[in-house]
Amino acid sequence: MNPVSDPISYGDAIILGIIQGLTEFFPVSSDGHLVLGQHFLGFGKHNLMFDVLLHFGTLGAIILVFRQETGQLYSQTKAMFTGVLKGRWKMWEQPEQRAVLWIWITTFVTGLLGLIFEDQVEETFSSVQAAGIGFLITSTFLFLASYLGKGDKTPQNLTVWFPILIGVAQAAALLPGVSRSGMTIATALIFGCRRFESGKYSFTAAIPIIAMAVLYQARKLIGHDIADLPAILLGVAVSFLVGIAAIKGLMAMLTKFSLVPFAVYAFLLGVLTIGMTMG
Question: Which has more confidence, 155 or 213?
């Protein structure tokens, strides 16, 4: 069997697990930070296996923290399918089912764009310069949301354009440096959603797309050497535990503080990252 990437030490696994757990949920891009983290830790080859498995850890954190929403996503999805089989197509008339339908529309749009642009995205994934540009994109959206996001709506009150454009925003986050949570929360705020509702929709919408993306990417790992599996599993556990704290922290911050500090951080990191590649 061939190794999928450079081996990982326990220390590297802990560091990258912390980075993933924090930055998957804080609106500053986990993938961009992992690209930088692996660059500074001296990885000669991007570690696809570790990235994929780290996302299992943060996916578990979302499901645990939003277990009630996860249960509703399952039960309302089942109810929608049952209704369709019985000839009831107007599932959007019920607020609970409309909210879940919006999640699946977001997932479909993100998945479709991800498949269409898969090759182009993968070409950028080891690029530090691409991560720098992505940080600047994230910063721009966070600044816009900070000044335009003053609404009091919920996702259920919005038209079908809401989940479609959230899906586009989430697809943009397939690029390194572009934050999934930052793009989706910012887009929801620009649409006029409440801060807490924006965060909840962002994290709930992450469940199906992260699960599908992890399973899709995992197919590439078949037949590869996993001799450093203990270190990888340690990183996954760290990302899970740190992710739980990060989600709870961000949801509390969304209701009390502006997104401007995250926007400033992403801007400075983007400038420094691009400057580093030009120096």
Answer: 155
Contact present, 188 and 197 (Cβ < 8 Å): yes
Does residue 61 contact residue 210 with C-beta atoms inside 8 Å?
A: no
Q: How far apart are CA 266 and CA 139, in angstroms?
A: 5
Alpha carbon distance 168, 186 (integer Å)? 12
Query: Which one-letter DSSP state was computed for residue 41?
Result: T
- List C-alpha distances in Å: 216 to 106, 127, 219: 18, 22, 6
Please state, in angstroms and rounded to a whole number, the distance separating the CA atoms of residues 220 and 244. Answer: 28
* Nearest CA among 129, 101, 121 for reference residue 204: 101
Q: How far is residue 235's CA from residue 165's CA, in Å, rounded to a whole number?
A: 33
Lowest mean pLDDT among 23-27, 109-113, 222-226, 256-260: 222-226
